[in-house]
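Discussion board: Methods & Data

I've been asked by a reviewer to show the raw model output for two of the constructs in my manuscript, not just the figures. I'm not sure how much to include, so I'm pasting the format here to get opinions. Each protein appears as its amino acid sequence followed by a line of discrete structure tokens. Is this the kind of thing reviewers expect to see in a supplement, or should I convert it first? Here is construct A:
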Amino acid sequence: MEKEYRFKDGGSIKASSPQEFVTRLREGSKFDSHLTDDEYMKAFAERFKLQTGKVIPVDAPEHFIVALFDYGYIIVV
């Protein structure tokens, strides 16, 4: 089942799994779309930590997306 994830900046992504969410997030990236999904999660998490001080786990797309939700970066509609 596809879900819509909205970002606090107003953008959104539709995905049917955490893995697909990461892939679509990476594909929409201005700078890191050439990376693998795992590399992208790591790069995103590093930037997020620098900007917010919060740590996002990158061991699995499921943990990555839960952290983004918990930190208020995304909401599910």
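Construct B, same format:
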Amino acid sequence: MKNKLFGFPLTFVLLIITTVAIILGTFIEAATSTANARQLVYNATWFEVVLALLTINITGSMFYHRAFSWKKITVPLFHLSFVLVMIGAMFTRYTGVEGSVYIREGEKSNVVELIDQGGALELPFHLHLDDFELERYPGSNSPSSYSSYVTVEDQELEQAFQYHIYMNHILIYRGWRFFQTSYDQDEKGTVLTASHDTIGTPLTYAGYFLTIATLFLSLFMPGTFFRKQLRKLGSMGTLVLLLLIPLFGFSNKPIDESKVIDKAQAHEFGEVVVQDYKGRMKTMNTLSSEFMRKLYGAEQLDGLSSDQVILSMITWPEYWATVPLLKVKNKEVARELQIDGKHLSFTGLFSRDGKYIMAGPVDKAFQTPEAQRSKTDQSFLKLDDKANILHAFLTGDAMALFPIEGAENNKWYTHHDAALQAKASDDSLFLTHILPLYIDALKQGKSSGDFSQADSYLEAIKNYQQKEGSEVVLSPSQIKAELFYNRSHLFERLENSFALTGFIMLLLFFIFILRGKGFPHLIFNIFFVLSIVLLLFTIVGIALRWYIGGYIPISNSFEVMIFLSGVVLLAGLLVSRKQPVALALSLILAYAFLFVASMNNGNPEIGNLVPVLKSYWLSIHVAVITSSYALFALVMMLALLNLTLYLFASPSRFERLLVKTGQLNALINVMMTIGLYLLTIGTILGGIWANESWGRYWGWDPKETWALISIFVYAFVAHMRFIPSMKDEFWFNMASFWAFASILMTFFGVNYFLAGLHSYAGVEKATMPGWISYTAGAFALYTIVSGIRYFKLKEKEL
């Protein structure tokens, strides 16, 4: 009985049941509601029984299999830390309380409205809201932070004190924790999350600490499986050149050169500071780049820079209204609007009698409920939005260039609005005439070749910005950094360089390995140095985004992809002396990450952070967990390489090939172990961030749930060696390759196909692209054929 209750087979069965259950839970939540997912899965009695059995199984197996030995002490301690976390979660579930407290300014409350249990609970003290404060980004309605100044009044203990509660800064008093959650629209009331969990949270945190400590120590304990795999590998290595491959944009329709401002003048105009509608201060070059990417789909038009396009547009708006700038992707929209090419001009949106040709489709789309809108409806709305943006640029109403003395929240205004808002008559006169004078001087300069007058007007605008907008205007060093970042197109060049370097190195590896030779040291050293240079340029790009944005650049999918490209290349460099092919694969993965970042779902813009993201816990959590993704991606590529070697191996060299794949398997084990540790630690840090930000270290949000699923998946792969029928290296490589699907789902699938706190999908309903199914099918066939070939060759060897 004991061998069944505490045996590994039951562990695997319970892990599979748990994994399948929480996968279903995420899809139930997306299809119906969070309440249904909790009722059917997460809070269901049967699910709690499964978790209890898993906890008992892990605890008992440590003693039954006599796992406690000083050489491997970290192994049982790690598994027992999981038990501690589970016990803590149980106490939180059954003894913890969570609710919300609502208070208006000048009033007090001691009532907690309970969330899960329903009803209300009275606190043994009152919270008096002295003041609620909402700070916005300059000139916008986007919150920068919001906070509550409260006084704690405790008559029972005869004490009172003031406290400032804001996002990621909580009030802890008499076992209760209060978090800033929301506020009233009139900004006179606050909503605080209140939680009370005296036993569960400390036990869970103790489990977290023990987990991290044992994972770290296990990397250095001599008797662990990780150390044995590490000994199978050789020594380590050293260092990199950027292959500058510039990218150019092309247009099918030639532009009238007489209606184009010279590059030098546009370059100067790009240095002007502008305030966007979200309150971020940026250069005009950044705004023009964003405009071109959003409307045209590329930063350049017929060789013209984005600055040239924008400056030419405000100088000759009548001409540029006829230039096809609006990209139309949807074929149905193109057919209805009778568009021959891929782009439409602003004037093309109107019929000969001046009617807006999209009025009907746009009205129809707006009248259709969001959930029922077709892709064509969504495309019409997107095109309508682009048309409004283009119109604003053509009229000069899209550029908030001018600060006004005494303006609320340091708001900047467009040329037309600034003249109306100015309090001083001199300022009003300046603001009324400066932009028209600058535009006229540009036209004259285009005819005469003398732009000195235009330069003086532009300098006057810059001086005015520095004088009246000194509180928020960018410093000269910030302007230079942003312009360098924009104009160098660093990550676009790195993307090409990664691809070229990585694929050439991989091709050479295959040539040498299939000939039974090792990778030549001289060639390897060349690629090693190239890779170090590429990594240094990646770090420079990340550092620039950090300096420009003022926060660690890991807040959106674009920035995370960039970070991953650097981490995976660093990992490849660290292990490349032991396995040169790892460097080639890491370069290809770095390319893949940057390629994904450059796709439409990636957002290259540097924006303002919402209040909840202003947390050091978040920065650490994202950095650690995405580093694990990079390692798992490299594991996937190494496994795919082994599957490819099985497929193309000749019978005469198969035995020698198994020696090479065995070394690669050791490397896979080492990297998978480190990746699994980082994923586990990253998930724990995410729980700590959540607990410090909104009072709940685990809420079964789809993102955190799929992170847990990924932990289970890779834990299963890492322990496959304990299943006799799956000990063969082919099954290990197959599982290592396909396990990466859980990471793809965790990072991409949840963001775009499931609802949750971490979802980036927005209002549009995401659908599964057809190419994903075809790709998965092709890889499945590839895996099957590789397996057939492997086992045939292995039979001959036997």
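Answer (T.O., handling editor elsewhere):
This is acceptable in a supplement if you add a one-line summary per construct. For B, something like: Residues 654-694 form the longest helix (41 residues).
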